[in-house]
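Methods, example record. To illustrate the input and output format used throughout this study, we show the complete record for FLYWCH-type domain-containing protein. The sequence lines were provided to the predictor; the line carrying structure tokens was produced by it.
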Amino acid sequence: MRNVAGLNYKLNLSLSQCIPRRFLVEMEVFVVKENKKIILDGYAYTVHYNLVSSLRWKCSNKISKKCPGILVTSNNYKNPTIEVEHSHAGDANLEIVEKAKAEMLKRVSISTPSQIFAEVINQVPE
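The corresponding predicted structure is encoded as:
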């Protein structure tokens, strides 16, 4: 409770209510597949709409978890803005897993699958 000019009121504002939404996300977008799939802050998104100056992304768990999560980025994946929050927790290891998978796919033509797997797994942080 605060008392200002003889009036009592509750201050129930969260940080997200005080800062404009466009400034809340300052993390870098990890592009899994160009114009198809990205990862940001433990959440995967697939392209929903390709607009003139931006891309609108939906949570990749939209169907399986009925998640309403929506993200908007510029066409070059900059300035990510969360439009609708997720209904589930993010996965902190999602970006690490996707990077490891991408690295394995790059090496397919030069090594055997077991060699690729062993090399990439040894590079994954504990």
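Annotations derived from this record:
The longest helix spans residues 94-107.
Residues 23 and 81 are 8 Å apart (CA to CA).
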